[in-house]
Design brief:
This protein is mainly beta and 156 residues long. It contains no helices and 13 strands.
Length: 156
Amino acid sequence: MVKLIKIYFSFFAENDNKHPIFKSDGSRFKSSDKTIKFKSDHNYTIFIKSLPILDFKFLNIDGTVIDLNLIKSTNLGEYTATWSTKDIPITKNKTRKDLIIILSSTEGDLNYTLQTKFYDKDDNHHSLLGTELKTIVWECFINDSNEITVYRENFT
């Protein structure tokens, strides 16, 4: 039996609590028509929530396993994590970096690719051009093989 869920995924820069920027790239690149802009050598707080509530085990971003911290005070299945972009190189001009996201829960695993671009930590021009990305909303289904598949993605 297929189960439908929504996963809410947000990033905040720890130094200023700002969300990253995204821009539409059309079909110029293979992974997505949108690019999320991050700064190198930064720490980002990640906020994750699902409806209905899933029990998440871990988050893996581009091969790095990141501990998830359950926000117990809300009782709503909300999690935070800290992700460092310290060892991610700045993306060259006219290229993008596919960022592989694995979000594992007791009911299944989400494997998803975000199209990204990494800028110098001191860049205050190109990294700020676009629209603030407050939340990524993934509408998903969990199949009988415990795979979580995104069928619709919204950037808000």
